[in-house]
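Quick one, T. Sequence first:
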Amino acid sequence: MKKLLLSGEINHHTLQRKMRSFIRFIGFVFVLSLWLHGCSHRAERPNIILLTLDTLRSDALGCYGNAKVKTPHLDRLAREGVLFEDAVCQIPATLTSHTAIMTGRNPKTTGVRFRTARVSPFEETLAERLNDYGYQTAAFISSYVLSPDFGLNQGFDLYELGSIYKDEKKTADERLAQETVEQALSYLSENRENPFFLWIHLYDPHSPYHPPPPYSTMYDPDYDGPLRGSVADITRLNAHRGQGASDRDLQHLRALYDGEVAYMDHQIGRLTAKLEEWRILDETIMAVMADHGENLGEEGRYFHGDDLYQPAVHIPFFIRYPKKIASRTRIRQFVQSIDLFPTLMDLTDIPMISGVEGKSLLPLIGNEVIEEQSKTGADYESQPGYLETEADALNDSSKLYGLRTDAHKFIFNSAHRRSDSPLGVFTEIPLKGPTLIVLRIQGDPSVRLMAHVRYRTRELYQSRDFQALASLNTTVVHAETAGVEPLQQQAMAQKSFHATPEGWRMQMTPDIHRLARRYGQAQGWPIDWMVLEGVGVDASLPARQKEGEFTVDQIELYAPSLRFPESPRYRNPFWVIEDFESGRGLIDAGEGPPHSIQSSWESERLFGGRRQQKIKITFNDIPDADSVDELFLIQNDPLEKNDLLTGSSTTDANKKLAENCRILLDDWISRQSDSFEILELDASHFEALEALGYTR
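Structure tokens:
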């Protein structure tokens, strides 16, 4: 499968990675020589099982205070080890968060920051490190989202996805915990004589919420309403901020989610029972954590990936290892998912590698069995946690950033783009098949291509009654990472495709027809008469940025199923929507925050033309950063009810704390990622992502 290299810039971290293959080889030879001379350290090392439980909220477990959902087996593991009460993930999405866990490094650092990123071979993963020190390594994965195509199979002797693949072809999107656990136990039945590292990934709590019987009715047996926990249900709820769903409907949605959790716990019980039967449970480090949480209606939010509030980023995290960790230990101090890697290195006496950004929690836990306790870690100095959301666009203004300290959470809204400020051209092109828009642009990196779709009715399909049309439903599709989708790859392979000149960048939408059709179906809107009503740019800027300049040229439609009359604008199969050689160019729609536009024309012979439109946008509303950003005292306000930057809570001390957080995050955002790649996916891969809710 092809890979598209987006950034090959080398910094000191990347150079370290490039040396690691050689260093690992030397290390392996050294370890092997020790073993050959009778060294006993290898045999003494504990087994490790890492259970990552996808999309699991902390408040779904009894050990975190839920008295309703039955999770006795997870509760037992937490009770017999150390439980971290205030653990967070670095990014609330599956691939990106698991990469942070497996490398001990932040998404910003590794470059694995969106759903189609690929783990660089220069990263040294937890599995590679343990493999170098004699561990057998095997992974049992429950979702296509962690397919080996994405690169997290590095270092595993076995990377098993069972029924998700057959004869090397994808046949399913996910599998139930029962199958995954059975495969892991089958492996262990023949491979437990030497130290092993098993990663078992269970996906059940992730959407769609379809627990098997009897868990499907365990927590709400009498519901007869419309919600079934499907991806379409969740998409619709998220789009409407929960409007149209009754409290009873939302109660049922939570009951389906809880059923998934209870079912998963039952399967984990099968695993622990077998480990006890084999008498290896107490010889094994059992590390349990979620990759992220899930929104289930808080403030009208559903799913995960787009915000940094507690339901999505607060994760369950506990470790059981009786030889070094006392039972019933609870840590109140803030910890992070990237801390697992160095903690396991400490517990196994394996030297730490350079470049890991997490911090070992062993000094916080204590490295010997001690009396039952609840620790605050007064002797442990934590470090700030950098949080970010997932976004398929590559510019940082499309992401939200956050900062965690022991007591506070800061959400950097003012680094995020304002609401849409569209500039465009009216098109009225029928949206009947695969379609994307291509734009060439230079200047401010926050400006991005957008396409506006109107869900017209049969009666208004060819209407010019703009007042009537304005009442119909619409959606907007923004540019995403170019070269990911099959349709994008197909467009760029055409002989008539124009290369992008130096100094310019190309932006492409995903398949507008596919996204608009799927979104319309989820909303219950008519989809047979969709019209691509306008294309242009979203000229929004980060909330604290007052001005931006950009130049645009050659907006093209790629629609292989449409045929246009012979024209200078038509280069089969591309139609030039706007070449900026005549006419007014992009027109300000006058929407979004108050702003003004200055437009001028640049002369440069590109794409066979003579001129390009240069635009300067200036925003009138420069909000006080304190009224945009959010600051919460998480220690005392875990539900984030009180923003310390609004109302009577806006003290000088809180303003100063927020400003310090902004400085740290500004520096963090400006850092260069290591080299990173995107994975070009085929149509079946995209269908899998959509079926699991990964659709923008």
